[in-house]
Design a protein that fits this description.
By secondary structure, the protein is an alpha/beta fold. The chain is built from 10 helices and 11 strands. The protein has a 6-stranded mixed sheet. It starts with a strand and ends with a helix. The relative contact order is 0.23.
């Protein structure tokens, strides 16, 4: 039986996709599924996937969920693709619309609002629309849409950069998670494939071959950080501790 792998369908996973497809043995043993972050969580919870790249805010709620890889979607300082956008400056924001595709970014926004920005807005769940915001509101936008829409607002805040400015730590948005035992030899191939993709970003972009309205090379080389190292692990634990209070 093939291992079902759910992948977030954003530009930041292009190196992962390339590595997974490039490894022919792994590809033959896998079924690749593509979703936005919130869907990827539900695929794992409903047992429609065996491995998924999961927003970190959702990992504790997945039964038997465990991180299985040394690679992640993270940022050392700025990330560019996770933003709070508003026509007004932070002190004037009274309502924030959360991104319907996100979990970690929405929770990060609440953490920053309470511990860093010292604002107490109302939070509401967003939809797929991107209507004009009122003068006292803001919205969280993530993924390729954030890169495309960031110049459409008078004020935007890169959430990873805001986190770094406050805590001098990187941030982790999503990790590879399984909720069941995966054969050890498959996991070894999986890790090798991810490592290959991250080491060959330019080839991955060429393989993807989809025109972008933003500089994809700069984004993947300079904004996204893929290694789930000790500093990111420590930052993730801090994020979990702070999130308990929001």
């Amino acid at each position: 039986m093939k291992v079902r792998v759910s992948i977030i369908n954003y530009s930041n996973t292009i190196p992962f996709v390339y590595g997974l497809h490039h490894n022919s043995e792994l590809a033959q043993r896998s079924e690749f599924l593509y979703h936005y972050p919130a869907q990827a969580v539900e695929m794992l919870r409903s047992n429609q996937a065996d491995i998924s790249i999961v927003p970190v805010a959702a990992i504790p709620s997945i039964p038997n969920g465990r991180i299985i890889s040394n690679f992640c979607i993270g940022a050392l300082q700025h990330v560019d693709s996770v933003r709070l956008c508003s026509p007004v400056d932070l002190p004037h924001i009274q309502r924030i619309t959360l991104d319907y595709q996100s979990r970690s970014s929405n929770l990060l926004t609440k953490v920053l609002a309470q511990y860093v920005w010292n604002i107490n807005p109302q939070f509401e769940r967003g939809t797929q629309g991107y209507e004009t915001l009122s003068n006292n509101s803001a919205k969280v936008i993530i993924g390729d849409r954030a890169l495309q829409y960031k110049d459409s607002f008078a004020h935007t805040w890169d959430l990873a950069q805001e986190w770094y400015k406050a805590f001098a730590k990187p941030f982790v948005f999503a990790c590879w998670v399984a909720n069941k035992d995966i054969p050890a030899d498959y996991l070894q191939l999986f890790e090798q494939a991810l490592r290959y993709g991250v080491a060959h970003i330019d080839e991955a972009i060429a393989y993807h071959n989809t025109p972008k309205t933003f500089d994809i090379h700069t984004y993947l080389h300079n904004a996204v950080s893929y290694e789930f190292d000790e500093k990111k692990q420590e930052a993730l634990q801090l994020f979990y501790r702070l999130a308990e209070g929001v």
